[in-house]
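[Automated response] Your request has been received and processed.

Submitted sequence:
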Amino acid sequence: MMKPPVVGILVGGANRRMGCPKALIQVEGLTLLERTVNVARSVTDDVILLGLPPFDIPVTLSSLSVLEDRHFGIGPMGGLDSLLTARPSDSCILLACDMPYLDGRLMRRLVEAEGGFEAVICTTPLAAGNATKWHPCCGLYLPPVRARIQEAIRNKRFGLTRLLDRMCVAPIALVGDEVRWVENWNTPDEVTGSMDLGT
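Generated structure:
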């Protein structure tokens, strides 16, 4: 891929299970949001925050643009729709802001994927058999996906994972220690458990 993609980081979630803004949780002196932006900048300087954040953006990130959802209350699909609409000619990486182990090596694998697909999405193995789990909030989306997303919104189908079933998707299969790259924090216990382990 010749031109670096734009990276959109989702910041508009309600954080109901966490009880506080996940983006502001501190990890080794940085908020999760600051850390995510730093990892995104390993492949591009073009980073945008997606959604209306229910918190004050850290001063270190005050120069970043914030793109509000065109359709509110529909989850990550709303952020991706707004990003692809604002940047219709660009490939876009969609990232959640709550992945404490996101790694620049994964970003490079997304950017370097080649040929014949509408999206490149990370997958991790499930315990049952050969099944895999898709991680649509860690993926690269190409411009033609915009039409599919807008059709899904018109039909009130707001699940990104279900949308992937109707697309030509190239998986990036994460195995072993790589699985942690897309681990996310949703509850205080998950945060505390990781801190207790010293990770």
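Summary generated for your ticket: The mean pLDDT is 90. Residues 121 and 139 are 4 Å apart (CA to CA).
If you did not submit this request, please reply to this message.
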